[in-house]
Amino acid sequence: MADEKTNVQTESGGRLPLIPIVLILIILGFALFGKKGILRTLQASRHHAALEAEVQQQEAVIRQLKEEIQSLRSDRQYIEDIARRELGMVKEDELVYQFAQGSDKASADTESPVPQ
């Protein structure tokens, strides 16, 4: 009777011991789903790759900021360009022309009359 509980009958009529099959299934379960299992290793690998990409992106930003700092410290033309662009500054001897944007007169001049 003990043999009947620990053995599984196969299609060919032979019997497989149940204990080794259960042990193999348990070992496979730990190999796949355990703390150091295959699935966790794959997940950690993907996470590592994402972090590496983020580090490279941040290093590129750092390089760009260091270049800008160096330009601000030593390049007068760069400083002048920023002052003109962001602060609207001009040199003493320059003449500034200002154009109104979206004025009614400018839009009326560009319209052509429609024949009726």
Explain the overall architecture:
This protein is 66% helix and 5% strand. It has 116 residues and is mostly helical. It has a domain at 51-90. The chain has a two-stranded antiparallel sheet. This is Septum formation initiator. It comes from Syntrophotalea acetylenivorans. Keywords: Cell cycle, Cell division, Cell membrane, Coiled coil, Membrane, Transmembrane, Transmembrane helix. Residues 48-82 form a coiled coil. The chain crosses the membrane at residues 16-33.
Summarize the structure.
Keywords: Cell cycle, Cell division, Cell membrane, Coiled coil, Membrane, Transmembrane, Transmembrane helix. This protein has 116 residues and is mainly alpha-helical.
